[in-house]
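Protocol step 4 of 6: record predicted structures for both targets in the notebook before any analysis. Target 1:
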Amino acid sequence: VFSAHVSPIKRIRIGATFRWEMRLNYQIPAKVDLEGIGTLGFVINGVAHYTPHTLAFGAAVDVLENLTIALDGEWQNW
């Protein structure tokens, strides 16, 4: 994760975050014994909990002392 935050003046805040892809690779060996026929062996492979590269960004402006306007966005590399 990489993040940056800048505040060019006190009332304006700008930030961005980049998150690398995350994944959980799994491999499950399995064996099925078919009585009288034989044994079937195989391996199940896959990926779980995948999230792509993500870039999140946002900005906030204090319009008044008690009023802030914010804009956020996110890009994902699916």
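Target 2:
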Amino acid sequence: TLESIITQKYITLIYRDGYEAFAELRRTGFPVLTDVNDDPINWANFPQRLEYPPSEINLNGSNVNAVGEGIGESSTPVWWAQ
């Protein structure tokens, strides 16, 4: 099934390219991640974006600030996921 394929892809990517694994998880919703009590993770508490590093804000602050408020917070959705 699609879920088993994406789960295997996630397992492969999580150790080689964490950013890609994160993107695949957000794109597909698989694998269904659970907490220590085996309850599904609440997506409202899951990061919606990777935060800009301080170097980007220092070197390109005018463009970072032009994007809008909440750009440096992991709880703000990316523009294409709103």
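Step 5 preliminary note on target 2. The chain has a mean pLDDT of 84. The helical segments are 2-16, 18-28, 54-67.
Proceed to step 6 after PI sign-off.
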